[in-house]
Specification:
The protein is mainly α. The chain is built from twelve helices and no strands. It has two domains: 1-50, Arc Repressor Mutant, subunit A (Orthogonal Bundle), CATH 1.10.10.60; 57-202, Tetracycline Repressor, domain 2 (Orthogonal Bundle), CATH 1.10.357.10. The protein has helices spanning 6-28, 31-38, 42-49, 52-77, 81-98, 100-111, 115-118, 122-125, 128-142, 152-168, 170-177, 184-202.
Length: 206
């Protein structure tokens, strides 16, 4: 008789569910297909996660936690000023490149107007790293590195949305501009340009 490992089984389910939800969204994904990909009895999915909505919510949380982990590493580096901005943008680009399912799931969730994300308590998805980045930019203003009139919250928001748009729109933009924006060298060019764009707006002229 095959011995069951609950933790291993849950991870297999989450991995399979992440792929299915990323490819087909909440409404398109089927529990039967998730069970088949995880090589586990469908009844065990319900036993571990309750229902399809609860499983989807766990996938959302799992993806946000992955982003939070890389942001927390940035916080621990405790960089500041220009180096901080470069590190944030580089980290976001690298994370999104290596985690296409994160991009897809957030796109699906936005199509659903954030319905399932809204069901979660704020403290569950709140990322303290964001407050750290805002405070660090404020410190850059106080140190005379960044322009005093800039809105630090808007800068962090612009970095997140600009980085994300490079991946959420990469296929349509590739067709529009006649170049493959999914390739690593193209992404590196976009990363460099985005960094220069943000810094040119931020840095105080001498």
């Amino acid at each position: 008789m095959k011995e069951r490992n609950p933790q291993k089984s849950k991870l297999a389910i989450l991995t399979a569910a992440e792929f299915e939800f990323a490819e087909k969204g909440f409404f398109g994904a089927r529990v039967d297909e998730i069970a088949a990909k995880a090589d586990i009895n469908k009844r065990m999915i319900y036993a571990y996660f309750g229902d399809k909505e609860s499983l989807y919510t766990q996938v959302l949380l799992h993806n946000y936690s992955k982003m939070e982990q890389v942001e927390n590493r940035l916080v621990k580096e405790n960089s500041s000023g220009v180096k901080l901005i470069k590190n944030i943008i580089s980290t976001y680009f690298d994370f999104l490149y290596n985690n296409p399912s994160f991009v897809n799931i957030l796109m699906w969730e936005n199509l659903n107007k954030g319905y399932y994300l809204k069901q979660l308590e704020n403290q569950v998805i709140e990322r303290k790293s964001i407050k750290h980045f805002i405070a660090a930019i404020e410190q850059g203003k106080a140190d005379g590195i960044f322009k005093s009139e800039i809105d630090s919250l808007q800068i962090v928001l612009s970095m997140i949305t600009t980085c994300f748009a490079n991946f959420s729109n990469q296929y349509t933009l590739s067709k529009l501009f006649g170049t493959d924006l999914t390739q690593k060298d193209a992404i590196e060019s976009r990363k460099q340009h985005t960094t220069e764009l943000i810094l040119s707006y931020l840095i105080k002229e001498n």
